[in-house]
């Protein structure tokens, strides 16, 4: 019998759903060769479902992302149901098998292409349970799912795995963040032979102090490592190599999905580059102040502090702050923050704290870590600043696109992490944050999530000049949108 | 072009003669060119040969005759529904004996519709099948060494081989 030619085989095998595609790759050497031609480039597949049954929703997104050839190297699911965390993890694990690094993360909303309408959607949950350990009662009755988005990635030339950050009371003698960083470095060293991961996606637990974790990571990781993530959710994960089961999600502070160069990658595989574009949404106001006294509540959720204007002895009163707010802030629903420049040893970080209340000469902020001597400014959310920030991000994505086109790179995917403060609730319309990506990279797979505390660190090559500035960097943002762009340069182009 | 020509005669690779109507032949670019050649030339003695065996050519012509009216005039949705059902019945055929040959013929004759249908049929045959089932359906020999086989199992943990 004559063998079908390459064109015909390519056409047939490219139509297979992922699971059959994997089987086809094992049929014979020739078929294997054809499948590797079909999946010669990295690929992102994502889908969103708003099916009120979580079971159905997860099935729908799995069917969609596995409907075409893909060999999943990692998976991320954003959901809204605390109750459904374990169920979602189980369902996805059953389909993908244990070996795929997976993070299931409860966020404040999802972005992605709806499996039913094929339209891009930005959906924020009506209700989010901040209270902590108690699953929402209404969940027990099912049909309370508000949405799921699933992202699968095929990234040849990279090794990917999840690495957890355990809560300190597991073993109080070890500095858990240091161990976390060492674990990430060990994984990277084994995979690549060097210590710089290409990218780290971080998912933090909302009950943990992610400010200090992220600041520490920011200083420990080399400048070229792009970091992105959501600091304030709740998650479960599977790991490829990390021998661990997670009996209780609340023992975990964070998990990192680490992307490291594969030192064994074949020469015909090109390079994957990650880029980050930030849309800021905060506006500073007033002069610089200095913390003069600070403390925190026993369960380490919030801090109380007093301050004075830098160079003055007059203690700052909350009245004067709120008078300024009345004069300055125009948003009807605004939030107030302090942006604190913290020096810890030789390292300097800009950390944002949400201002909860101010009375007399005391202020209370969410989170911990304030110390006397820290300098800070007040910030407020601002529509005009947010729209300007979005325009800047749009332009930066446009510049990135030009660079990508010029070099004949190929943008194959995007992940957007947007503050839950934004979205439809703030702008009044859907899709304000996905549009800058979609318009610059039409047709490119994109998904995302609404978060509380957007981790975004690392600059694209095009704004290298900005890096020269020695101002404190902030790896953990508020009221922002972060665009994580994945680009591929084929092997021939990468050789130059 | 002479309007009197309603059908042309072609030879299969086995040397058998087949008639194909002009409107049906228009579904294939190469056939259409042949048709024009035949109609414009004065001596129509020469019967063009199509490098497709008789068994396959019967099926190809059957497909063309069925799809020609719709392709040439456009049709209603109910026709399209009916045609879809017909396609499914039409594609119920032996993989090795006919489907492979249909794939090659449709590719060679540039028949987009039939090619797409045949590729999809071949792909659908693999859905939910284990590796060895696929080998059986498509009559393919396993040419991997046992070490390579082991490596494949590691690379594709979700695959069932037997």
UniProtKB/TrEMBL annotation, chain A:
Residues 4-44 form the F-box domain. It holds the Pfam family F-box. Gene3D superfamilies: 1.20.1280.50. GO terms for biological process: positive regulation of proteasomal ubiquitin-dependent protein catabolic process; protein polyubiquitination. This is F-box domain-containing protein.
Automatic annotation (TrEMBL), chain B:
Pathway: Protein modification; protein ubiquitination. One of its GO terms (biological process) is protein ubiquitination. Keywords: Ubl conjugation pathway. Residues 113-157 form the SKP1 component dimerisation domain. InterPro entries: SKP1, SKP1-like, SKP1-like_dim_sf, SKP1/BTB/POZ_sf, Skp1_comp_dimer, Skp1_comp_POZ. It comes from the Eukaryota. Involved in ubiquitination and subsequent proteasomal degradation of target proteins. Together with CUL1, RBX1 and a F-box protein, it forms a SCF E3 ubiquitin ligase complex. The functional specificity of this complex depends on the type of F-box protein. In the SCF complex, it serves as an adapter that links the F-box protein to CUL1. This is SKP1-like protein. It comes from Acacia crassicarpa (northern wattle).
